[in-house]
Each structure stands twice: as C-alpha cells, then as structure tokens.
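USER:
Before I trust my own judgement here, I would like a peer's view. Write it directly below this note and I will take it from there.

ASSISTANT:
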Amino acid sequence: MTNRTYREVRLAARPTGPVTDDLFEIVEVPVPEPGPGQVLVRNTHMGLGAVMRSLMDEHNGVPLPSYEVGAPLHGHAIGEVVATPGTDLNPGDLVEHQLGWREYALLDADAATRLDPDLMPDPAAYLSQGSTALMGIERGAEVRPGDTVFVTGAAGGVGTLAGQVARQFGATRVIGSTGSQQKADRLIKELGYDAVVIRGAGPIEEQLREAAPDGIDAVFDNVGGEQLEAALALANRNARVAIVGALASQLSQDGTTVKVAVDSLSLLIRSITLRGIALYNHRDLIPQWNRRFAAGLRDGTLTFPHARLQGIEQAPRALRELTEGRHLGAVVVEF
C-alpha cells in the first residue's frame, strides 16, 4: 500500500476577501499505513459549508481550529474502511469523520463513527446539515402547530431542510429569504415555502411585512444583519428567535462583522426569546436526524436538495461556488 499515492487539498494562502481557486493546492502524497488503534479510510464523499470560509482565516471567531497554510483542510466526510489493525472496525465498514479534503484519511479509530450502509437511500445524505436544521426548529425556535416561521438563508444546505422540518412541526406558513428570484421560485415550487423575500430587491422589512401580514411566531436565523433586524421588527408576542448561523458576517467581502441593532425594550415588552444555539451542544440530535431523514427520503416527505461535484480536484471550486451562492441546498464532492 505504501507504493500508492492519493491527492489532498491544502491551503496555499489565507484569503483577503472572497474564496478564489488560487488559495488552494492539490498535492499527491503516499498512502499511509495505519498503526495500532488507527484506521485508514478511503473517502467517498465530503460535505462543504460556509463555516469553511471562516476557518481559512487565522483568527476565525468560531469554536473550530483554523486551517493551517501548507496543510490539508478538514471537514465532514464519509468513506470506506480500508485497514484498521486492532480496532472494532472492519474493512468495508462505512464511517464518518472530520478529515475530508483528501482521498484517503488516516485517523484514530475513535474519531471514526460507523454508519449503517442500508439506512440512507443515498450515502451522501449522511452529509446533510439537517441535524442543524432540526436543532434550530425544535430546540431553538421551538416551532409549534399554527406558527408562521421565517427562515433566513433558506436556499442553503441548512435552510432548504429547515423549511421542510418546520412543516413537520406544524408550521402553517413558512417564509424564506434568499439572494435571487430564481432561487425564490424554486423554494416555493419545490420545497414548500409559502413566500420568499429576496436580498437586494428592496428593504427586507418591507418585503417581510407583506409576506407575513400577521407577524412572525418563530425565526430560524442563519444570516444575521438586516434580515435578523427585520425578523425582530415583525416578531409577535412570545416569538422565539433561534440564532443558528451568521452568514452575513462569514461571507462579507471585507471580513468585517455585520452588526445588528436590537431594541431591548421592544423585545422585553413582547416577551421575545432570542437564543443562540449550536450543534456541538446538541449532538444527540445527529442520530435522531439520520433516522428521520432516512424515513422521509424513503416515503417522499423529505428531500435532499444538493449539488454534487465529481472528483477531489473540484473541491476548491465547490467551496468557491458555495460562498458565491451558486447552488441550492447542500454542496457535496464525490471522490
């Protein structure tokens, strides 16, 4: 095995603005031999997320280690065990781990989680961001039957699933936000959104007021900035607001943090709950989501909107296009 090689994607330089292809380099290196307690995995799929743009900065502001210049990037991946001396795993097992951006991954066996290869109709569905969507809808925004729900960043990997999950929890009106009319049309026609406000098509608050004339009961905020401010302005009494992401800051062209003006007296008078919530505190939802998602995919009550690019050489392009908003849903690279 040591005579074989594989490819990995390394960070060539830190960005000073948007993601560009020259920030990455693809390097061919020898396939390693696993030692006792280690597992060698042939990666088959990796998932990408907007947080990866933040991790490219030396000081990223999120509770994850930054990428190192000259070293391979990391991220959620699934693959097949090739060799695993002295562990409970077996060659051929399907596992998930956090060493994506490479065709082979060498890691400690306890850092790989065995997956049921028969659970999902498509193994790439294990890379969905649906556990975050479930967390934000159920535990963050506490969506209830009859609610009007506003999901910001509705066309991304999280938002496309959050709208579907809100329906499962009884929401009667689901409103999203996105950056183009084309995506808005698809959210309504394909993913069950009732209305969509469009960034850049006029003040968000005015669009949202038209889309939600009776106000908003629950907010799944993945963006921040103007969209969160608009949601707070239209929030009904006892509304619940879940802060799940901060795309406005993560994808800002100059790297600055986008501030949000909050009228604390108004929130107090309306008894509004504003809650930041992150998946690393709710990891028990991951297996719950996998079972829910698998059942929904099989009976047609849930869908997995995603773009799939082929080959590790497409990974830099995949992240660039994700941050540019080129795709609807999740972005997956298949090796």
Observations:
- The radius of gyration is 21 Å.
- Residues 285-299 form the longest helix (15 residues).
- The mean pLDDT is 95.
